[in-house]
Amino acid sequence: MAFYGGSRINTNVGALNALNALNVINSRIGTHQLRLASGKRINSAADDPAGYTISQKLKGRSRSLTQALNNVGEAKNVLSVAEGGLQNINDILVTVKEKMIQAGNGSYGSSELNAVLTQINDLLDEVDDIVSETKFNGTQLIDGNFTSKVFQTGADSGDSITVNLSSTLDSASFNLDSLTSSDLSSLAALSSVDSFINSVSSELQTVGSLVQRLDNKEATLQVAITNTDAAASRIMDADIAKEQLEMTKLQILQQTSTVQLAQANAAPNTLLSLFR
Fold first, then answer.
1. Can you tell me the distance from the alpha carbon of 256 to that of 247, in angstroms, rounded to the nearest whole number?
2. Same domain, 222 and 247
């Protein structure tokens, strides 16, 4: 700050010093007003270059984690649809086995056996329909071709889960597409149904394990998003109480600076007394 002797009027150094102080205070007031208005401590890179850079990285990671969380939810939806189809198939196959055992009743004649056969074939046709109709976004899920489907479940490369539903679950694959009444109580037919049920159960286990794993990832991602947002907030967001305190202090200083500027402008008038 320039030295002010008080006896020169051509350049009012005291007024200039007061004006500079007032300008600095007004600038600081503008900064705090913006922080209070926006709720952010950093409103541009110039406010805190390092903090701004870190916060932008944290925001980018938070958005990536949020999208990964959406992917996990989508994967769970896919698996839920597949699980529903598999459970229905399993229930139907249990009924098919029950009917085959029923056909082993030695008191049944050909008409009764044909009735049981018709029911079994209808049930197996329904199994095939379920396989073809269990879809998500137009893609069949349990026809044996839903394999190597990668779901990104994190913000970094390699944070993913691969879904493989590779079992072929149609009746033809288990030689159950052309049954006759004589096949109903045969050991081969019962064995085929058991194999079919085991394949469906195995696929259900795969789906259940994946859903459980996705549940864990979902919980982990939610915590990660919260912590990342909290870290970014600590850097970017304004402490409103602190900003208001600073604002009050600066407003007082603004008033005193204005008064001092007015007094400094009036100070040269005292020199006029030397000419009286």
1. 14
2. no
- Which two tokens mark 64? 């990536």
The domain total for the chain is 2
* CA 235 to mean position of chain CA atoms: 22
Note whether residue 133 is domain-resident: yes
- pTM listed for this prediction: 0.79
| Same-domain pairing of 217 and 245 | no
Tokens, residue 130: 């379920």
List the structure tokens of 75: 């994967």
Q: Which residues contact 58 (CB under 8 A, 6 or more apart)?
A: 228, 229, 231, 232, 235
Q: What range defines the domain where residue 172 resides?
A: 63-235
Q: What is the pLDDT of residues 208-224, one digit of tens each?
A: 999 999 999 999 999 99
Neighbours of 188 (CB within 10 A): 9
Regarding whether 136 and 252 lie in a shared domain, the answer is: no
